[in-house]
């Protein structure tokens, strides 16, 4: 199986933007936490989350085909398939829990980070109801596809509010690393 170090090297070879690197890491963390909770392969799920958008910056017109091909060449078919299916409009079937988990975690994790970034306290004190309210505001983080968020939760068979709470909790555990700690205002 591909190692964490190999996955990081692949990601960093194609992705330079801080925001996209943070997104990859946040989805990795959430996927690892769900794998642990559900008794799945933590490394495989984490690497899938880390690499799901690895080719997006370098090959936007070919995303996700470049990273999918790389994973298939390495014999990582489950990772490749999950990455190929992380957007419903691509029409790829959801064969297993890994596929559905990545779909459910990708857009929503990015959205929750966006919610945190506009708050002085960032993730600290971020409530599920605030995220739900922001989901209803089409102008906030307008690039986030709300249908993908809804469909992802349905396919993963999780309650939306519990799912949001779980993701917030995972991100809060890593807020310093993610640079999402509260802003310090000068006195």
Largest sheet: none
Query: How many strands in all?
Result: 0
Spans where pLDDT lies below 50 across 5 or more residues? none
- Cα-to-Cα separation, first versus last residue: 51 Å
Order of helices and strands: HHHHHHHHH
Give the helix proportion (percent range). Answer: 55-70%
**General form:** globular
Count up the helices: 9
How many discrete domains? 1
- Category by helix and strand content: mainly alpha
Structure overview:
The chain has 187 residues and is an all-alpha fold. The chain has a single domain, classed as Hypothetical protein af1432 (Orthogonal Bundle), CATH 1.10.3210. Helices cover 60% and strands 0% of the residues. The longest helix is centred in the first third of the chain and has 21 residues, at 18-38. The chain is globular. The chain starts with a helix and ends in a 14-residue tail after the last helix.
Please describe the structure with a list of short key phrases separated by commas or semicolons.
about 190 residues; mainly alpha; Hypothetical protein af1432; about 60% helix; HD_domain; Metal dependent phosphohydrolase; hydrolase
What is this structure's SSE topology?
Elements lengths: L3 H11 L3 H21 L3 H10 L13 H9 L3 H8 L12 H21 L10 H8 L10 H11 L3 H14 L14
Helix pairs in contact: 1-3, 2-3, 2-6, 2-9, 3-5, 4-5, 5-6, 6-8, 6-9, 7-9
Care to give the gist of this entry?
The chain is mainly α. The radius of gyration is 16 Å and the shape is globular.
């Amino acid at each position: 199986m591909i190692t964490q170090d190999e996955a990081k090297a692949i990601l960093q070879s194609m992705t330079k933007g801080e925001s996209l690197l943070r997104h990859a890491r946040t989805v990795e963390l959430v996927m690892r936490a769900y794998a642990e909770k559900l008794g799945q392969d933590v490394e495989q799920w984490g690497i899938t989350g880390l690499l799901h958008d690895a080719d997006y910056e370098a090959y936007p017109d070919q995303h996700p085909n470049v990273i999918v091909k790389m994973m298939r060449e390495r014999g990582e078919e489950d990772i490749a398939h999950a990455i190929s299916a992380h957007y419903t409009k691509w029409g790829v079937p959801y064969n297993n829990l890994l596929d559905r988990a990545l779909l459910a975690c990708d857009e929503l994790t990015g959205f929750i980070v966006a919610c945190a970034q506009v708050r002085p306290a960032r993730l600290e004190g971020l409530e599920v109801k605030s995220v739900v309210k922001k989901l209803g505001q089409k102008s906030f983080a307008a690039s986030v596809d709300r249908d993908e968020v809804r469909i992802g939760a349905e396919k993963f068979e999780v309650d939306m509010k519990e799912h949001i709470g779980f993701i917030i909790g995972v991100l809060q555990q890593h807020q310093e690393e993610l640079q999402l700690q509260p802003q310090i205002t000068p006195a």
